[in-house]
Amino acid sequence: MKLCVYFLAILSSSLALPSPVQELAWEDIKGENVYIEPISNYTVDASVGGRVIGGMTVTPNSVPYQVAIYINGRSFCGGSLISRNFVLTAAHCTVSASFVELIFGAHNVQAAESTQVRVTSMNIINHGQYNPSTLLNDVALVRIPSAISLNANIQIVALAPATAGTYAGSVARLTGWGRISDAIDVISPTLGGVNLNIITNSVCASSFGNIIQSSTICTSGAGIVGACNGDSGGPLTVNGIQVGVTSFVAYRGCELGLPSGFARVSAFRSWIAANSDVSL
């Protein structure tokens, strides 16, 4: 199959020290994403417009484990708070990062909300076997310099255990600040969410081929719903348990009705336990 990988970000290797995100105009902050060329034929349902894709803005601070991540002061991803000391995200977000700014308790990341806590970290742990060509092991951890204080707006999400099943047939919740349409260039300032149906890996492989492995979890794009630029690294949950880390979407657009791909959290519990304070 043909694999097309694009990182939609402006990254500067010359940056040695953190610079304020506020120096950039909002439209210059780009969402990190990986795009996969589908192997199957597809059609675009032109009757469904762009609207995370097909979702809606969530109630402010109703997803207290969601974290916004600015990478090198130039690009953007999501993440999740998995302990008072660690954030879980995607390796393709942080593999080239010198530093990240973590924003906890945010709804509108473009505003200085009273609920927000902003922390800069240079302690990034990318999975040692992350492969940008195959997207295997697309997970990373960011250590928070000092333990974050929990409150009504900042909470820890539970992780799917290593013994979890496939979740195929379950309804999952994706949240993020990703683009709401292929026609819009900028990520959303406010947190959005959408309910997605988890599909079997064999069904997902009919769209993406052997890029789909046991450590992948996919959601259906039927109805034009799913992830897009800026959602990468963010959480996919089932009944409040994180089961996936947003990883990739179809190369030709987010609104094609094709599946969205995630790193399967249960497959990485041993790695998470070995590199953080979250036990198995």
List the topology elements:
Blueprint: E1 30-31, E2 34-36, E3 56-57, E4 66-71, E5 75-81, E6 86-89, H1 91-94, E7 100-104, E8 117-121, E9 124-126, E10 140-143, E11 158-159, E12 171-176, E13 192-199, H2 201-208, E14 216-219, E15 235-238, E16 241-250, E17 260-264, H3 269-275
Parallel strand pairs: 1-5, 2-16, 11-16
Antiparallel strand pairs: 3-13, 4-5, 4-7, 5-6, 6-10, 7-8, 9-10, 12-13, 12-15, 13-14, 14-17, 15-16, 16-17
What does this structure look like?
The chain is mainly beta and 280 residues long. The chain has helices at residues 91-94, 201-208, 269-275; strands at 30-31, 34-36, 56-57, 66-71, 75-81, 86-89, 100-104, 117-121, 124-126, 140-143, 158-159, 171-176, 192-199, 216-219, 235-238, 241-250, 260-264. Strands 1, 4, 5, 6, 7, 8, 9 and 10 form an eight-stranded mixed β-sheet that branches. Strand 4 and strand 5 (75-81) form a beta hairpin. It is globular and about 45 Å long. The protein starts with 29 loop residues before the first strand and ends in a 5-residue tail after the last helix.
Task: Offer a few descriptive terms.
eight-stranded mixed sheet; disordered N terminus; six-stranded antiparallel β-barrel; mainly beta
Question: How would you summarize this macromolecular structure in one to three sentences?
Answer:
The chain has 280 residues and is mostly beta strands.
